[in-house]
Every structure is written in structure tokens, then in C-alpha cells.
Amino acid sequence: MYKERKLRIFMQSGPSDPDCTREIRQKKGQPRNRRDAVPADAYERKTTLIDYQPFWKTLKKSGESTYTLITRHRISSATVDKLRKNKPMNTTTLNDLCRILECTLEDVARYVPDGREKEG
């Protein structure tokens, strides 16, 4: 009865009591922590296949800055952050960058093989 009451309170008010949250998670059969939910091979280091190093050279040559990209051309700061960290990016965004900087895709991004050969 006590656990059912805690479950009802949790559903009404949200996760305020960590013990209640743990009981509910175990009751639903969910893993106890996030690492249990993700396969072990998902934590292997992934190599970058697309590199945005050419973008920074092109940006310098164009006379634009990250500030002008964000303020004048409405490129989000998250996009600039993705460029800095070589994160995946939408092709529409790459198209916009090419249009703004008046360059080709090769001037913004380059393909870097990961070194693994395909089996089969």
C-alpha cells in the first residue's frame, strides 16, 4: 500500500524523492542506470569522417568572422560550435555556408577516411 501511494504521488508531482524514482524504475523493468541501457560497443571512440578544417581557412580568406556569421547572416552559435568540434551537420547548413562565403563544398568540409577497411 505504501509503495502504491508513493507511485501515485510521484505520478502527480514528479520525481522529487529519489527512492520513489528508483522503485518506479525497477517496477517498470527499466535498467538501473544509463550504462545498463546502452550496448557496450556504443562507448568505443568514434572517428570523425568529415572534417571542417578547410572552413576556417575559407572564413579567414573571406573577411567574415564567426561574429558576422551569427549576427549578420543568422547562422546559429550551435552551428559554429558544431564546426569547431567537427560534429555532424545538415547539408542545408553547409549549402548556406557555401552561399555566404561564395565557395564550394570542398572549401568548407573534407572527407577523412577512418582507416578501417570494410569486410566482406
UniProtKB/TrEMBL annotation:
It holds the Pfam family HTH_26. Residues 12-41 are annotated as: Disordered. It comes from the Bacteria. SUPFAM superfamilies: lambda repressor-like DNA-binding domains (SSF47413). Residues 56-114 form the HTH cro/C1-type domain. GO terms for molecular function: DNA binding. Coiled coil: none annotated. This is HTH cro/C1-type domain-containing protein. It comes from Acetatifactor muris. The lineage of its organism: Bacteria, Bacillati, Bacillota, Clostridia, Lachnospirales.
